[in-house]
Amino acid sequence: MKFFKRLSYVYSVLIFLFLYAPIVVLIVYSFNSEKSRAKWGGLTLDWYRALFSNSEIMRALSTTVTIALLSSVIAVVIGTMAAVGIYNMRRRSKMAVMSLAYLPMLNADIVTGVSLLLIFSALGLRLGYFTLLLAHVTFNIPYVILSVMPKLKQLDPNLYEAAQDLGAPPATAFFRVVMPEISPGIVTGFLLAFTMSIDDFVISFFTTGSGVSTLSIMIYSMARRGIKPEINALSAIMFIVVLSLLLIINLRSANDAKRSDSRPVSAGARASSR
Amino acid sequence: MRKRRTSLLALPFTIYALIFIAAPLLLIVVYSFCVSPQNGVTLTLEHYKKFFDFSNPVYLQVLWRSIYIAVISTAICLLLGYPMAYILSKLRPGLRQVLSVLFVLPMWMNFLLRTYSWMSLLEKTGLINSFLEAINLPAFNIMYTQWAIVLGNVYNFLPFMILPIYNVLIKIDQSVIEAAQDLGADSMKVFGRVILPLSLGGVASGISMTFMPAVTTFVISKLLGGGQNALIGDLIEKQFKTTGNWGFGSAMSVIIMVLILLAMNFTSSYEKDREEGGQLL
Q: Per-domain residue ranges for chain B?
């Protein structure tokens, strides 16, 4: 038994090494004063300084962040409304609309990307920021619906009616009674949508036009001829930010009574599956 | 009556989804049967004939290579991931919570960058080979081969195998295991007859979550596989981004959709509780 314990310990360490090796390499190289990744020239913070004066990277960063913010806000509005609507539908139409919502999740990203490219050209839209935004809204809405839906199912339907019996108009009843109950689902949906959007490459690659790149697209175009060390610096910063955010969220949810212990993990897991 | 009116809230989404989810997929199918759809529509089977041309099976070979690499990658993910999920599930709740977050964490670093980073590790003069050289071991040259693509797939998609299996394993009722033990089953039997069958749902969603991105990738093959190991994803990307043969690209997209549907159909017979799977998805 002790042997198995030791074996499983060694095994876990090896798997973690495998998963973290490339990340450690990236972070270490962000401090390398040599421009090439073949040589080590000593420690430097130059790339971190150069990063903020590199207008190409900064523009891509701002496209990435604004697309992520806008698309997740739009997705939250449309998706939350949709969830409430679908919840109140009759069985048959509920099934139909839900399978429509599931479709982008079941499809490979490349198929979603290509299909959006086809519709944009059929509609005569010029590829660029706007089509990129539309594409991100499209793949983000389902995540919002699927995060809000379980909260609606947990909701006591009598609450909403009770509020109306006590004289609240439907809108007031919704915003004062239903909203507070489903808001955790809305927040989860927003965070999921935001991370999906930041992380996406394949769909953006097919739906953006010349001149508009997200970070992922820029990295892809750089990869063949060598990635600028500034990108390493940027990704190291982003990694540390995400690490601290995750730590905070997890510490909070650990204190937050004992919710089913897989929730934050599975949310994150899906976030990168695209 | 009130309910009916509330259900109208789903209308914006329904319209949006019809335009940007349903119509685009239909368009792919339509384009795949059309010649030069830009100027005038002519129905044709040309693209499918070109793909399934057995006298000149270049495209079939690519499809076969994509499936082959995806199957091997998925199998390795399963072999590596199941034990890891099992080990994780046996830890005490606090610890396993922390560790499972650590599994997700690498995925928050840009996927392209992580794959790129493997290039610096695997290159002829890369870190792994310098290390092997330093301790007098033969060099390890898999860069720009199919095995590099397999490695990239396993690296990128291993967490999608571990997490669904882990999520199913921690939900197994401990009393079922104790009952088996009370009835005299040894630990091998408990695993083979109780734990493994109960975890098949997780295995099935793990397989579909790894196989789908692996079979459609074009990033990993391009970065790690070099030019000569193109996959079906590369072919589709090329039709849309450089060659401009949208009809042929659409036909290949349809083929890949059918392939994925078949694969999902195969695994979903094990996924009894769709709801649970949906959460994970």
A: 57-280
pLDDT tops 90 at residue B276 = no
Residue B44 has what pLDDT? 86
B57-280: CATH number:
1.10.3720.10
B25, B100, B104 member nearest A115 (Cβ): B25
Q: Does B95 touch chain A (CB under 8 A)?
A: no
The arithmetic mean of pLDDT across residues B249-266, rounded, is: 91
What CATH number is given to the structural domain containing A243? 1.10.3720.10
Q: Which residue of A has its CA nearest to B115?
A: A22
Whether residues B160 and A269 touch (CB distance < 8 A) is answered with yes
Lowest mean pLDDT among A236-250, B20-34, B199-213: A236-250
Give the mean model confidence (pLDDT) for residues A179-206. Answer: 91
Q: Is residue A105 part of a domain?
A: yes
Chain B residues in contact with A242 (beta carbon < 8 A) = 105, 108-109
- Interface probe with B: pick from A119, A147, A242, most Cβ of B within 10 Å: A119
Tally the domains of chain A: 1
Average pLDDT of A239-265? 64
A112: distance to nearest CA of chain B, Å?
8
The average pLDDT across A239-259 equals 71
SS (H, E, C) A2-61: HHHHHHHHHHHHHHHHHHHHHHHHHHHHCCECCCCCCCCCCECCHHHHHHHHCHHHHHHH
The answer to whether the Cβ–Cβ distance between A107 and B257 falls below 8 Å is yes
Structural domain of residue A161, as residue ranges? 47-271
User: At A247, is the pLDDT very low, low, confident or very high (cuts 50, 70, 90)?
Assistant: confident
Q: Please report whether residue A24 resides in a domain.
A: no
* List of chain A residues whose C-beta atoms are within 8 Å of the C-beta of residue B114: 22-23, 26
User: pTM (2 decimals)?
Assistant: 0.88
Residue A265 predicted with pLDDT over 60:
no
Please list every residue in chain B whose beta carbon sits closer than 8 Å to the beta carbon of residue A175: none
* Residues A12, A42: Cα–Cα separation, whole Å: 32
The answer to whether residue A196 sits within a structural domain is yes
The reply to whether A33 falls in a domain is: no
Residue A274 is predicted with a pLDDT of 39
